[in-house]
Amino acid sequence: xxxxxxxxxxxxxxxxxxxxxxxxxxxxxxxxxxxxxxxxxxxxxxxxxxxxxxxxxxxxxxxxxxxxxxxxxxxxxxxxxxxxxxxxxxxxxxxxxxxxxxxxxxxxxxxxxxxxxxxxxxxxxxxxxxxxxxxxxxxxxxxxxxxxxxxxxxxxxxxxxxxxxxxxxxxxxxxxxxxxxxxxxxxxxxxxxxxxxxxxxxxxxxxxxxxxxxxxxxxxxxxxxxxxxxxxxxxxxxxxxxxxxxxxxxxxxxxxxxxxxxxxxxxxxxxxxxxxxxxxxxxxxxxxxxxxxxxxxxxxxx
Length: 302
What we know:
Elements: E1 3-9, H1 19-26, H2 34-46, H3 53-71, E2 76-82, H4 89-98, E3 103-108, H5 118-129, E4 134-138, H6 147-159, E5 170-177, H7 190-205, E6 210-215, H8 229-238, E7 243-247, H9 256-259, H10 261-273, E8 276-279, H11 287-301
Helix pairs in contact: 3-11, 4-5, 6-7, 8-10
């Protein structure tokens, strides 16, 4: 029988009317306040009303299925499940169990892993699959062959949009989604993964100056990992940086955290302080990126 492949992602509201329900799920049954809901609706409205994440993810899943089928016909059955928006990952996992699969590869569409992100995907998938289905859980895959090369090319493409005469005062900022600081108490190495990724891509792209920052922190009373990218942009400008290439390396597709947090919010700060900001292109369903995911899945299945 073929190997099941359960591709998992965070999910996104399908329509503006779904925003409240979606964030209620994220908040474990606690509806967002009127103030928070208004702010969230404003953010989605700024990028067109809804995020393109659902379409981007569907394209990635379809492309991965096609790539696996091309190299190993009939060898894999690829299905998608979301963490917070139907189809939920439990439903996809149940479908594998009901269809008699004995092995499933679990792949989260996030290159870095942590106890509060990808680990939760895998634990929920394992529980839903049950004891009779073996789960080969892919944790982090940022070291997968080809990933750093892909990101380095995107950084160089973005740098090409900066006046060469200003390259000496240009920096690249690599970012990922912030998480609560409490993850570090248990030895979570999520920040080290981001730094390692930044170092590797910077080496391949022969960067002279680069840094890491965090973005998209949640609105909670707990402290989150920093520094936040907006504060970093202000600091860089005060130190004489004229141009910044934003590389949100922790994300693999266009969605709210990229299209609003970088393209709208960070750009607004950049304009305010006289900083030229360009962003690397998202991976989405790029053929070379899908090939990286294909090889990650095949290695896990083997």
